[in-house]
Automatic annotation (TrEMBL):
This is GDSL esterase/lipase At5g45960 isoform X1. CDD domains: SGNH_plant_lipase_like. The keyword Signal applies. The gene is LOC111012428. Keywords: Signal. It comes from Momordica charantia. Residues 1-24 form the signal peptide.
């Protein structure tokens, strides 16, 4: 089967940059680092809808999520522009690192300078990929010294991908291997590129980290009962087969217990999954905090 390039744009790379983080942080056994006073710490996020906290609220696009039922399980129980029912993995990371409770969107006109200095997200839903090497080089040139790249998840397991590629979208809801295989291949290339860039920029003090999102999400899907999930092939919103963005709206039915679902809509994971992805990435965050 020939892969359709736009399908691999559904979930993009995440760039987390922590230019300076003070040493001596709390132990990794703690769930969160609550001292939000690290003046030297900052986190900048680049990516797509999986890490967009609401930038698309401020641009002319149909691909938004600043309306119910999105955000129904957020702290305020209001939609924020995050494409999920609650928080994103990057929110959990920022909170754990003691930087801030939630990462705000860069385009929010009400942001104060303090917010900009401690960290924002430049991510925009539907943005796809930028040229990898030139993007990282640009971030390094601007002062980024701790750069984290997150690999692609099992793309073939997204409900929307299954719906569009299954012979029977209702009865055959298994992952589409060709898409997942492409994601694995991309991740292998990405890791090799990071090794090369680390070698070339080692003397500058730059440090690159890779976070695997494929393995943890695949495990949540294939061994779902271990995590308390019951539904892995469809999202909580609507039929779960095609709904996302404006198709998941205030008039759309949503499941009563989202904690049993891996996906919130047909593309994006639930808050619970994002938390588990944060837990999987926590060793990398701890390594950066101790650097």
């Amino acid at each position: 089967m020939k892969l359709n390039p736009p399908a691999l744009r559904l979930l993009g790379l995440v760039f987390l940059i922590l230019p300076v983080i003070s040493d001596g942080g709390p132990s990794p056994e703690q769930q969160y680092h609550r001292n939000f006073n690290r003046s030297s710490a900052a986190i900048l996020v680049f990516g797509d809808s999986t890490v967009d906290p609401g930038n698309n609220n401020f641009i002319d696009t149909l691909f938004r999520s600043n309306f119910p039922p999105y955000g129904r399980d957020f702290v305020t129980h209001n939609p924020t522009g995050r494409f999920t029912n609650g928080r994103l993995a990057t929110d959990y990371i920022a909170s754990y690192a003691g930087i801030k409770e939630f990462i705000p969107p860069y385009l929010d006109p009400n942001l104060e300078m303090e917010e900009l200095l401690s960290g924002v997200s430049f991510a925009s839903a539907g943005s796809g990929f930028d040229p990898l090497t030139s993007t990282i080089s640009g971030l390094w040139a601007e002062g980024g010294r701790r750069i984290v790249l997150v690999g692609l998840p099992p793309m073939g397991c997204l409900p929307a991908v299954i719906t569009l590629n299954s012979d029977d979208a209702v009865l055959r809801r298994g992952c589409v291997e060709s898409y997942s295989s492409a994601a694995r291949g991309f991740n292998e290339i990405l890791q090799k590129e990071l090794v090369s860039m680390q070698s070339n920029l080692a003397e500058s003090g730059a440090k690159f980290y890779y976070v695997d999102s494929y393995g943890p999400l695949a495990d949540m899907i294939h061994d779902h009962r271990k995590y308390g999930f019951e539904e892995v092939g469809s999202g909580c919103c609507g039929s779960g087969y095609v709904e996302a963005s404006f198709l998941c709206n205030p008039k759309t039915y949503t499941c009563p217990d989202v904690t049993k679902y891996v996906f919130w809509d047909s593309i994006h994971p639930t808050d619970k999954v994002y938390y588990n992805l944060f837990l999987a990435a926590r060793p990398v965050v701890d390594a950066i905090l101790k650097f």
